[in-house]
Amino acid sequence: MKYYFKTEQMSVGYQGKPLIQKIEIGLNKGEILTLIGPNGAGKSTILKSIAKQLKLIGGAVYLDKKEMAQMSGTELSQRMAVVFTEKLKTELMTCEDVVATGRYPYTGHFGILSKEDDTVIEEAMELVHVTEIRNQDFTKISDGQRQRVMLAKAICQEPEIIILDEPTSSLDVKYKLEFLSLLQELRIRKGLTVIMSIHELELAERVSDRILCVNGEYVERFGKPEDIFQAGYIKSLFGIETGSFDEENGSMELEPPKGNADIFVIAGGGSGRSTYRKLQRERKVFVTGIIYENDLDFPTARALATEVIIVRAFEPVDKGILEQAKKAIDSCSKVICCREQFGSLEIANKELLEYARQSGKAVEIAE
Question: N or C: which end of the chain has fewer CB within 10 A?
Answer without folding.
Answer: N
